Structures are given as structure tokens and as C-alpha cells.
Amino acid sequence: MKIVIEGAGEVGSHLAKMLRAEANEVTVIDSDEGRLSALAAYADVGTVHGNPSSITVLRQAGVAKADLFIAVYPNINQEVNVVGALLAKRLGAAKVIARVNDEDYFTAENKLLFKEMGIDLMFYPEKSAAEEIIATLKHSSSAETMGFARGKLQIAIFKLDEDSPMLDLKLKDFVEMVKPEELQQFRVIAISREDKTIIPKLDTKFHFGDLVFTVSLQEGVQPLFKYFGKEDIKTRSVMIMGGTAIAEMVAKSLVKQNVDVKIIDKNKERCIELSERLPSTVAIINGDGRNSDVLFDEGISSYDAFIALTNRDENNVLACVVAKKFGVPRTIAEVENLEYTKLAEEMGVDNVINKKMVTAGRIFRFTLSGKARFVRYMSGTNTEVIEYTVAPGAPITKCKIRDLDFPTNAIICGVIRGQESLIAVGNTQIEAYDKVAIFALQESVREIDRFFR
Predict the structure, then answer these.
(1) DSSP assignment, residue 170?
(2) CA–CA distance, 151 with 120 (Å, rounded to integer)
């Protein structure tokens, strides 16, 4: 595909590197030569220096023949991205995507308006991150969770601690100890171990520190927690460090669920602003959350979850480590430097949220066959989870799963067929209009996509 990206900031540069790795032709526009030079130093992409709203610059970048145009200009009014996307569409780009920073744009009426104007997708990274955090809090014990078809299928990740009952068991031992009726409710699909992702075989042994990926039906979630020795803790109170846009959106959502929320921020003006914008039930504290004495005085040990959302990754990670020492059951840190993700997990942070990764998944599906409804990058791994809708006559429907020449570094997790959901096994036959969840290493995504064309 030919892809043009407007903006070489953090999000734009990450997308450029990721999409170029998938053998796409990528060109990046930016008015800052320094940002373009920094990107060109580590990514084999074309660059065009100039005003992102200039028709001449857009034409120079080749938008007339672009399969996809992505407007993610950094630190600037969102109107520049909207105008850039609309111009690119008029100049001939097949699909256009724009980054915005206003929740009002996402009302059903406004989304339809922009769709009619020609923008195929609008995204707000902070809003996506907030939604991710809310979804994560629903299951307190797993390192990460995601659902398909309103939760009918769940993918959850369990970290094996030193007291885990799974340690040193082989997969076949685990299968033998599971009740027969539960074998159809869940399965182990992968293991992340020391920067490697393993599709396990029956003789694969579970090790300390492993991240074990599972897929389950709704009724299989509780048995999974039992086997992994985890308790599904309900989140009734949350302390948030950092009064950012993400924190504001998370707080708004949580109070609607009758969760007690306290936000700590060291900027007095921002605290005043939050107190005016958020419901009165949200406690706003002007203080430095990096100071453990402040956290102690604010009763951190009594909270079910601690979320660190400042603009500094190091502060977020360290604050979560402190929260763990105070006995908080669940910690979540926003970490934008991808190199810190694994470090954060090793230091005991339960969940890592990265705006770039969340955004990348939503955009990446536009580079696939058109049957991919959802793409999710799993933090700390080189894996993706993709949800496809099966078209009539697609190769995936030609035979049972065990007879498909499916990539060995990918696995078909589950199938949603109408109101029915099922865990996929060897004799499962995929049918037209099924929704299929695929777990895959990144290098196999293109090969998988051909099964759904």
C-alpha cells in the first residue's frame, strides 16, 4: 500500500515505522526538519518538508495515489488534521484518517457528519487510552484483558508469580487437571517469556515470570482465575496521579459506575479546572503524587486501584511500585516509551497503557483486507489479536481448522456465530459471517489476511 502520514511526532513516527515494516510504501510530511531527520535515521520512509495544509505539499507527497492518508500532526490545533484529511480525500486518497482532541467530535451525529464529508476514521488517542483503562479495571487480576462481541469472548493474560499453582506444570498436566466441561470454556493460546512469544505445545512447561495468554467464554472466566490462583477483585475505589485529559475521562466514566475517585495533581490551576469540570463526588487534591508521604496521607492503602497518568513515564512507573508497597491490589501506568514497557512489568506494574499502541491497532486494520474489524497490539509482546468477519467463499471456510494450512505462529482462538460463542478447536468449521478472533505474531499477519479475502 502507498501510505502518506501528516506529522512526524511520536504517534506519526511510530505509525511510520510500524507500517513500513509491513512492506508498505510510506511518506511522511512535516514542517519541522528536525523531526523528519530523526525519523529518517531509523525508518526507511520518504519525507516531505512543508506546511501540512499546503495543497502543493500534499501533491508532492503523492496523496493523489495514496491508499491511506493519516493526519496526526503533533501539538497543533486539531483543525489542521481535519483540513489535511479532507484535502487529501479530495485530491484522491482512497481512505483518510484524522487525529482530533475533542470528545464532542465523537457524538453519533458528529461522527456521521465527518463520515459524509469523507473522513473514514477519527481517533482521539487520549480517549482510546481512557477506554482501555476502564476495560482493564473490569478484571483486576489479569495483566491485560480484551473482549469480543460485547464480552462473549475474553482474552486475558496471567502473570505467573512465585506462588502460582501453574509453576513447572506442563500444558498437558494443566489440561488433565481441568474439569471436562470446562475444557470447552477456555484454552491457553500463548506464552510470553523473555521477549519471546511461544505458541505452546502439550509438553511446554510454565515458568516463573511467564505471561500466559488465554481465551475464554464468559462462563470460563471464573474457572480460569481459580486455576491460576487469582482473585477477581472488584474495583470500588481508584486513586489517580496526574490530572491529564486521560485522567479526566477515566474519572467521568468511573463515577457513573459508582466508583470512588480521587485525583492528585501538583498543578493548582489544573486542580481548580478539574474541580469545575468533574462531578463533585470526585475528590481533587493539589499535591505531588511522587511523594510517598502525600500518597500515605491521602489513604492510598485503602484504594482498590492506583493509576499513574502524568506526562513522565518514570514517575508513573515508580509511583505504581510505591502503590504496590502500600498494598494496592491493582496498578496501571501510562508508559509512552515502548522500551520501558517490559521494565514496568518486571517492576510489578500490573498494566501498562500506551496511546501509540492503542492507536496503531485501530489504524492498522485499514491496511488489511477490509474484513478485519479490530486489531489490538498486546503490550510487552510482538503479538496482535485480530477480529475478522468471514466473507462468503473465503478460504478460511473451505475446511476444518485442523486441515487449514494456517501459519504455525498464529492460532484461531474463538468464533462468534450469531448469539453463540465457542472456543475454536481442530474440528471447528468456520462459516460465512462468523466473527473470528486470531492471535498472531506480527510477522504472520499478512499471511493470515489471505484466508479472509
Answers:
(1) B
(2) 26
Query: Which of 60, 105, 103, 100 is CA-nearest to residue 81?
Result: 100
Q: Are 328 and 306 in contact (CB under 8 A)?
A: yes
Task: Spell out the CATH class of 234-328.
Answer: alpha beta
Q: 250: helix, coil or strand?
A: helix
Asked if the 2-123 domain carries CATH number 2.40.50.140, the reply is: no
Please list, in sequence order, all residues whose beta carbon lies within 8 angstroms of the beta carbon of residue 194, skipping any fewer than 6 positions away: 209
> Where exactly does CATH 3.30.70.1450 map onto the chain?
358-452
Strands 237-241, 211-217: parallel, antiparallel or unpaired by DSSP? unpaired
- For residue 193, the SS3 value is strand
Q: What is the pLDDT of residues 155-190, one digit of tens each?
A: 888 888 888 899 999 999 999 999 888 888 999 988
- Phi/psi at 121 (nearest 5 deg)? -155, 135
Say how many Å lie between the first and final Cα of the chain, rounded. Answer: 16
Contact between 265 and 282 under an 8 Å Cβ cutoff? The reply is no
Cα-trace Rg, the chain: 23
Output the DSSP codes for 78-106. HHHHHHHHHHHHHHT-SEEEEE---GGGG
- Report residue 129 as a C-alpha cell: 487510552
Would you list the DSSP string of 15-43? HHHHHHHTT-EEEEEES-HHHHHHHHTTS
The model's confidence at residue 378, banded by pLDDT at 50, 70 and 90, is low
Give me the CATH topology for the region 358-452. Answer: Alpha-Beta Plaits (3.30.70)
Task: Please choose, from the candidates 109, 250, 225, the residue with its C-alpha nearest in 3D space to the C-alpha of residue 158.
Answer: 225
pTM to 2 decimal places = 0.79
Decide: residue 56, CB within 10 A, 0-12 exposed, 13-18 middle, 19+ buried.
exposed
CA angle, residues 173, 176, 182, in degrees to nearest 5: 125
DSSP 8-state secondary structure symbol assigned to residue 381: S
Determine the Cα–Cα distance for residues 218 and 154; give it in Å rounded to an integer. Answer: 7
